[in-house]
Write the structure tokens for this entry.
Amino acid sequence: MLIPAVKRALYNLYLSFSATNNAALEREYRELRALPRYADPKHLAQSGYKIYSQGDEDGIIAEIFRRIGRGSRTFVEFGAGSGIENNSAALLLGGWNGLWIEGSGEHVNAIKSGLPSLIDSGRLKVLQSFITRDNIDGLIVGAGIAGEIDFLSVDIDGNDFEVYSAIKSIQPRVIVFEYNAKFPPPVEYCMPYNEKHVWRGGDAYGASLAFLERALRERGYSLVGCSLTGNNAFFVRSDLIGDKFAGPFTAEQLYEPGRFHLNHYRTAHRPSYQALDQAATQSSI
């Protein structure tokens, strides 16, 4: 009898700690958004929320498309992870279609078994591949996606920019790039290309925000914001900007430091494939 009682006590202690920690994270989000630097109503920091994203990316992405409008409602995300924590899963709730490319066979098998309705309907295509600059464009073309799309998300913890630069088949209106928050502006850093790179948790990965801001500006995109967690940067095709976003569109103005602890904030129960598969066929946001 003692062991079950101890287990219950430990579980109740865990629940209490989790609730307290989550409340602290929610309070930190509120305090950050109350800062004067985010007072401009065009600043994207006020729009963040989490459904399936790692941090507040879902809300920022939704707000970007509210401002610039939706086109084909097609996405491509490489480095899609488990499928229930990434930057495009929430888009499926709005009737979007797209492609996930993921290197982990375990993740891909879980997605295929967990999201049968989305996959069988053809709305979601899932490919398993270790992504390189030599194969990325062929993977996208082979999935039947080409031309202008609404959304591209890049997050492979390493050769992100070099792989993105090899894409010729699609022209995204919006790009989300994971950036290396270790290096604040004006530092320009981009990891040298290494086809065999696997991220081991250190700071040798990806590119700094200043590097990405300059490199994507040269390709016709403007930096319009970053997640408050310091994970992801948001770029919009420059001809779509108008007066819809808070400038200046520079890394110095929009950089967010790494606040990765905020990724642990939970808005509800842990996500499941079952709910995503069902909700994506029933609702529209």
Observations:
- The beta strands are 74-78, 97-102, 124-128, 147-154, 170-178, 221-226, 232-237.
